[in-house]
């Protein structure tokens, strides 16, 4: 177990900046998720902590010790990647025990540790199999067992569940969260999947364009996204963003008017979550036509064409509407998020 400190971390590849002035403190035992779209710098951050890349400038401390010049193999961390990188010619047991062999642990001590690690991921009955004889989920568990066999200071996981089908991913997500809390090992986890980030993380760091956009607990980020990028990235489906203009306490946009007291006049973007909108025939907030109506089982997702925008609305399972029918939408003032029209930064509460 260890803290991780990244200060003023910067990474360039030639003239291209992959990571700009990253400052981040990770608590001992914390499950920290780096979330962002493709190319935002997530893997680069991970590779810098792992020692697979050298920072252009800045400091990396693991357990309070500066590791900038410490080679990857001496940083006492275990990595799990998207391609599990199991050795096909070795059995499950040999794969899991490989880090112990490298660490020159006597054979007699290895067997029990391998069995314990395999048992934690419920793979101890398949130790004699080879990776080719396992399902994707089982291979993923072997990769996890290989990571935990050694109780390292730090786990680094880069999209470890992305090769699994949706159902298995949900199961493995729960297992991974449980296991991480049980082992209490500091974990940095990279994903572009906001649901994975929300469900796994103690704290999420959202990256875009080589910079941190926001960090906080999943609940904080969901409740108060710092800018329109974060607002449009978190939530399923994400928050609706509507641009318009505030004048004298009224926000006017292409398909309606929303009372909005307490903000300066000028261009603005309002954000409203699909679950915070209701169908309200008397409302002037948004008027449009039903573009699609999708029954999800426990709810219905309406997509409403309003001016240029397509607004997602989550209603009850009985709330389906005919395509192209006229619809009016309303919401409570306290559910609205307001962002600066130019910078996209959050305004007010
Ligand atoms: P993904 O989810 O697609 O893996 P990511 O957020 O992990 O994305 P990184 O792998 O960190 O992205 O890459 C950040 C940026 O740095 C990308 O634009 C990428 O093209 C660039 N980059 C990464 N490695 C190199 C390299 N060795 N040389 C040049 N550019 C690189």
Q: What secondary-structure arrangement, pairings included, does this model have?
A:
Layout: E1 4-13, E2 16-26, E3 31-35, H1 42-50, E4 57-62, E5 65-66, E6 77-81, H2 92-102, H3 107-120, H4 136-148, E7 154-158, H5 166-183, E8 186-191, H6 194-200, E9 203-208, E10 211-216, H7 218-223, H8 228-231, E11 240-247, E12 250-253, E13 256-259, E14 266-272, E15 278-279, E16 286-295, E17 300-306, E18 309-315, E19 326-330, E20 337-340, E21 346-347
Parallel strand pairs: 3-8, 3-9, 6-7, 7-8
Antiparallel strand pairs: 1-2, 1-4, 4-5, 9-10, 11-12, 11-14, 12-13, 14-20, 15-19, 16-17, 16-19, 17-18, 20-21
Helix pairs in contact: 2-3, 2-4, 3-4
The structure holds adenosine-5'-triphosphate.
Any descriptors?
six-stranded mixed beta sheet, OB fold (Dihydrolipoamide Acetyltransferase, E2P), Rossmann fold, alpha+beta, binds adenosine-5'-triphosphate, 21 strands, 349 residues, 2 domains, single chain, six-stranded antiparallel beta sheet
Short description:
With 349 residues, the chain is α+β, with helices and mostly antiparallel strands. It is built from eight helices and 21 strands.
């Amino acid at each position: 177990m260890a803290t991780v400190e990244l200060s003023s971390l910067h990474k360039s590849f030639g003239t291209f900046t992959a990571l700009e002035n990253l400052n981040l403190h990770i608590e001992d035992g914390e499950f920290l998720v780096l979330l962002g779209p493709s190319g935002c710098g997530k893997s680069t951050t991970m590779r810098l902590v792992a020692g697979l890349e050298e920072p252009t400038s800045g400091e990396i401390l693991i357990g309070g010790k500066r590791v900038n010049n410490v080679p990857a193999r001496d940083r006492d961390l275990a990595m799990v990647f998207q391609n599990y990188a199991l050795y096909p010619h070795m059995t499950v047991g040999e794969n899991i025990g490989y880090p112990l062999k490298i660490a020159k642990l006597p054979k007699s001590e290895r067997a029990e540790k391998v069995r314990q690690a395999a048992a934690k991921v419920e793979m101890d009955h398949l130790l004699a199999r080879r990776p080719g004889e396992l399902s994707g989920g089982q291979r993923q568990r072997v990769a996890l067992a290989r990571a935990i066999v050694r109780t390292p200071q730090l786990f680094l996981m880069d999209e470890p569940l992305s090769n699994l089908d949706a159902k298995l991913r949900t199961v493995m997500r729960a297992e991974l969260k449980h296991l991480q809390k049980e082992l209490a090992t500091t974990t940095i986890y990279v994903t572009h999947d906001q649901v994975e980030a929300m469900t796994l993380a103690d704290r999420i760091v959202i990256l875009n364009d080589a910079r941190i956009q926001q960090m906080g607990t999943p609940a904080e980020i969901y409740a108060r996204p710092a800018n329109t990028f974060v607002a449009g990235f978190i939530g399923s489906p994400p928050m609706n963003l509507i641009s318009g203009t505030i004048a004298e306490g009224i926000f006017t946009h292409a398909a309606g008017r929303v009372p909005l007291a307490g903000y300066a006049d000028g261009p603005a973007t309002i954000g409203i979550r699909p679950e915070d909108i209701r169908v309200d025939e008397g409302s002037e907030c948004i008027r449009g036509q039903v573009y699609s109506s999708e029954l999800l089982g426990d709810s219905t997702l309406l997509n409403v064409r309003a001016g240029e925008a397509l607004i997602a609305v989550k209603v009850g399972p009985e709330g389906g509407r005919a395509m192209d029918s006229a619809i009016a939408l309303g919401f409570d003032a306290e559910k609205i998020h307001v962002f600066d029209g130019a910078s996209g930064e959050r305004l007010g509460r």
